[in-house]
Design brief:
4 strands; 5 helices; Sufe protein. Chain: A; single chain; alpha+beta
Length: 144
């Protein structure tokens, strides 16, 4: 009888282990979001892909006078004005990677300046993110 109980216990334990190793069946969903920036038609555009609550891909851009800041790269010429000596596109690439690694909610903003409050974000992105995060949140909502 004791041998049967041991075997039954072992089988039950194996079943629990196998059940715990189940796969994440969350589907990837995509969404897009925008936020108005200025009266001249400038806007922030965000495309993202989520799997469950996790952002697996994100692209952020802003048009200024009809031109993509990302496509302008070094021609946008923000490096001199940046306290961390990074161009706009470099700061946005940092933010995109940060969101993929830490999630949207990990980006907290100062209500007065619109800049990130966390040193981990400020290490690579010091620009005002108010409208950018508005567009990110719109895209995430549209991906649900």
């Amino acid at each position: 009888m004791e041998g049967i109980m041991k075997k039954l216990s072992a089988l039950l334990l194996m079943a629990l282990v196998i059940a715990g190793c189940g796969s994440n069946d969350a589907k990837e969903v995509s969404g897009e979001g925008t936020a108005a920036v200025g009266e001249n038609g400038d806007k922030v555009s965000v495309s993202l892909t989520m799997k469950g609550d996790e952002v697996v891909d994100i692209s952020i851009d802003e048009t200024k006078e009809g031109k993509s800041k990302k496509e302008q790269k070094y021609d946008y010429n923000m490096k001199e004005a940046s306290g961390i000596q990074k161009e706009w596109f470099e700061q946005i690439e940092f933010l995109e990677d940060y969101i993929k690694e830490n999630g949207i909610d990990a980006v907290e903003l100062d209500k007065k300046t619109g800049k990130p409050t966390g040193d981990d974000v400020l290490a690579g992105c010091t620009i005002n993110l108010t409208t950018i995060m508005e567009a990110v949140n719109n895209a995430a909502e549209n991906a649900k």
